[in-house]
Each structure stands twice: as C-alpha cells, then as structure tokens.
Amino acid sequence: MSHYEMNIDGPVSGQAVVGDGNNVVAGGSTLDVAELKRFAKAAARALPVLELNDEGRRTAEEASVEILAADEGADHGRLRALGRTLRAVLEGAAGDVLAATVLGIWSP
C-alpha cells in the first residue's frame, strides 16, 4: 500500500490529484468578501455618472445591493457570480475613466 502526502501552505484554488487512483482533492476557491464589498460599494457610488442603459444600471444596482447586504455565512459562489455580473456591466462602460478605476479594485 502506497502512502501519499500533500502539504499546502496558503490559499488553495483548483484541484490536485493525489495518489494513483481517481482520488481528487478539490481545493475550495477563496473569496475575499471584504474586497468584493469594497468593489461593490465603489461601483454603487459610480453608477449615477456612468452612461449605462436601464437594464445595465438595474442589474448593477441589484448586484451591488446583494453583495453589500451579504453576511459572513453567505454563499461565496453566489457572491462571486454577483461580482462577475457587476464587473461585466462596468466593463460595458469601460470607455469611462471612472469605470476603469473602479474595475481595478476587485478581480475575480
């Protein structure tokens, strides 16, 4: 019987295969909720000056509100999806210098 050992020092993202079978150890993706909230807050402040269509503005506002209201036990997958949605809306307004500044705050 073989013995395998894996030591991980630091955040883990993705998957690692250990052993000689189909043993897959999935490392959970980490999410810095504080940074995501900082991004959502900055985006919410920027929305009034961005030239977004009604749907884009509504989508961004809803995503920002939901991110900012999240508590410690919130689903990180859901928060990440909301962050990506918010980022995509802002990327649509990327010609605006303010949007580019806000986009630099958080990256999925």
What does this molecule look like?
- The chain has 108 residues and is mainly α.
- Helix content is 50%, strand content 7%.
- It has 4 helices and 2 strands.
- Strands 1-2 form a two-stranded antiparallel sheet.
- A hairpin with a 6-residue loop joins strand 1 and strand 2 (24-27).
- Helix 1 (33-46) runs antiparallel to helix 2, helix 1 (33-46) runs parallel beside helix 3 and helix 1 packs antiparallel against helix 4 (97-103).
- The longest helix is centred in the C-terminal third of the chain and has 17 residues, at 76-92.
- The N and C termini lie far apart (41 Å).
List its salient traits:
single chain, elongated, 2 strands, mainly alpha, 108 residues, two-stranded antiparallel sheet
Order of helices and strands: EEHHHH
Helix-strand makeup class: mainly alpha
| Ends apart, CA distance between termini | 41 Å
Rounded mean pLDDT is 80
Largest sheet: 2 strands, antiparallel
Rg for CA atoms: 18 Å
Low-confidence stretches: none
Task: Give the strand content.
Answer: 5-15%
Helix content: 40-55%
Number of helices: 4
The strands making up the biggest β-sheet line up spatially as: 1-2
Number of strands: 2
